[in-house]
Automatic annotation (TrEMBL):
Belongs to the MoeA family. It comes from the Bacteria. It comes from Idiomarina abyssalis. Residues 182-319 form the MoaB/Mog domain. Its cofactor is Mg(2+). GO terms for biological process: Mo-molybdopterin cofactor biosynthetic process. This is Molybdopterin molybdenumtransferase.
Length: 409
């Protein structure tokens, strides 16, 4: 059933991830510039968080042994966030305390305001309920302890990470240099958007799609434009890209047609590790190297270019960029309809999934699965991932769905 000249998707990914090594250069960036950057070494806390025992509630700081139901305590002072109470507290005394305020010495609990009754001038309270030691106290270091690792190497910094770093007072972080990735498209028929189409011409959509996906990845992009189906021009562009780029991504010209020169150019100048993957769309994907620059030859059909960028190239570029913990979200969903599928290649069908009234995930086809039809990629919110050797899917069968990654949204 399988075509031996096509490499299974998992093997293609493994091959690339084992071949490509992570960038070694690092740099220091300020916190305000760090969003989406990848941490080059772990961040350990230089503080205890919280930095001191403090109150979780508005109420009264008390000695739990004295604050028994019915007992009366004298209010000897006030502690608020930013305004600690530093004096001694006499026997059967307590301190009015606000949320976030440091816990004064010699008390061990906070009784919430609702469990007390204050006299007219609020100089005394009556305890309405017992309180136990440590009640309503947020202990020093209970969130993060001094020295604890808070963010691991290889983490792509999220807004939450940025907030966490700020809470620790960290203003600079060590990150990997961003990879520099060149993109060009090939095809005599291609016209840049804004131009005028002559007979037999189409607009170059792939380059814009790929550049946008790369921008979302946070890499440095180099737009090398559109090239004619010309071996010399393509060879020159590939050589130019090796001067300064970590990787070059092309679209088109990797199939078997008379004008498919990209792969030929790479074979002459560098080396092709593999060509043709058992996936649909995306079969004529090529991977190789040109001097120190990695090469990803994506197919020309727009959906095949998008799928191979998302499913094959993205994980490898993340690895190149230093990102660890690269995972793909995948769920089981019930096929709402019959899905065509032939054994031989793993399908990444464009689907639309949603939850039905019972909370069950249902998925249906987004329409045409032709790799030339970009509009159904727009109408989809997931890929329906069907294994290489399986046949069609009947309505009601369970299938794997991959909700679109941030690159496609
Ligand atoms: N005899 C065979 N023919 C084809 C095979 C095959 O195995 N045997 N594979 C098919 C598959 S699968 C795909 S996908 C395409 C990929 O071909 P290429 O990568 O060589 O791409 P082109 O031939 O240059 O173009 C294919 C198609 O895509 C359009 N295109 C190209 N670049 C762009 C762009 N930047 N923006 C928008 N559209 C683009 C191009 O006009 C063609 O229509 O080959 C099949 N053929
Ligand atoms: O990559 Mo092609 O899509 O399978 O037409």
């Amino acid at each position: 059933m399988s075509n031996p000249s096509l490499m299974p998707v998992e093997q293609a990914l493994e091959n690339m991830l084992n071949t490509v090594s992570t960038i070694t250069d690092k740099e220091t960036v300020e916190l305000s510039e760090a969003l989406g950057r990848i941490l080059n070494r772990p961040v350990n806390s230089t503080l205890d968080v919280p930095g001191y025992d403090n109150s979780a509630m508005d109420g009264y700081a008390v000695r739990s042994s004295e604050a028994k139901k019915g007992s009366r305590l004298k209010v000897v002072g006030v502690a608020a966030a930013g305004h600690p109470y530093n004096d001694a507290i006499p026997e059967n005394g307590c301190v009015r305390i606000m949320t976030g305020a440091p816990i004064p010495d010699s008390v061990d609990a906070v009784i919430i305001q609702e469990n007390t009754e204050a006299n007219q001038d609020k100089s005394e309270i009556t305890v309405l309920q017992n309180v136990a030691e440590s009640d309503n106290i947020r202990r020093r270091g209970s969130d993060i302890a001094l020295g604890e690792e808070v963010i691991a190497t290889g983490t792509r910094l999220s807004p939450v990470d940025i907030g966490l770093l700020a809470s620790l007072g960290i203003e600079e972080v060590a990150v990997y240099r961003r990879p520099k990735i060149a993109v060009f498209s090939t095809g005599d028929e291609l016209v840049a958007p804004g131009g005028k189409l002559k007979s037999g011409q189409i607009f170059d959509s792939n380059r814009y799609l790929l550049l946008a996906m790369l921008e979302k990845m946070g890499v440095e992009v180099v737009n090398l434009g559109r090239l004619n189906d010309d071996l010399e021009a393509i060879s020159q562009a590939l050589q130019d890209a090796t001067q300064s780029c970590d990787a070059v991504i092309t679209s088109g010209g990797v199939s078997v047609g008379d004008a498919d020169f990209t792969k030929t150019a790479l074979e002459q100048l560098g080396s092709v590790s593999f060509w043709k993957v058992a996936m649909k769309p995306g079969k004529p994907f090529a991977f190789g190297k040109l001097k120190d620059t990695w090469f990803f030859g994506l197919p020309g059909n727009p959906v095949a270019a998008a799928v191979t960028m998302d499913q094959l190239t993205q994980p490898v570029l993340k690895h190149l960029a230093g990102e660890k913990h690269i995972s793909t979200e995948s769920y089981q969903a019930t096929a709402a309809e019959y899905l065509k599928k032939r054994p031989g290649r793993a399908d990444f069908q464009r689907g639309w999934f949603e939850q039905d009234n019972n909370g069950q995930l249902k998925v249906s086809s987004a329409g045409s699965q032709s790799s030339a039809v970009l509009s159904t990629l727009k109408r989809a919110n997931c890929f329906i991932r069907l294994e290489q050797d399986r046949g069609p899917v009947n309505a009601g069968e369970e299938v794997a769905i991959l909700p679109f990654s941030s690159l496609l949204r």
